[in-house]
Amino acid sequence: QPQQMQENLPFTSDLFQRVISAVLCSFNQLSSNIDKQVALEYLENLKENHVLLCCTIGFELIKQQQQPLLHHYGIHLIENIIKYKWLTLKQDERNILREQLFLLIKNCLNDTFMEPIYIRTALARCTVEMIKRECFEKANTSLEELVTLTQQATMN
What is the mean pLDDT of residues 5-22? Predict the structure, then answer.
């Protein structure tokens, strides 16, 4: 299983800077088409083959100050993982993603006037996508269970 072997790529500051450079390059009008293609292929490879790493990268990109493009890409990574890779994650990996998402939401709620509205909206979208997947996995999930799950996550 080559995908599992590739999953062991560690999160480093060098890797994170390369991701930032690739994101900025791929959306820079002054970048050549070849540079954009190389950057997009690099980002796509990470997204497809290093799910857990992309989860970390996504949350770190959202934390970058005054960088809306990085915020959008970070949210894109997290939303992509929840929508398309959720079922491939182990339960403890899902728990970590869920905890990180709720922690970020809690921080946004505490800094209501500090975070742009698009981040809160995107985090709400991610939460809904995650809850939809949790409900389909457990067919008998009730609204009370969803409320309890959300309350537990925001209290931590």
Answer: 84
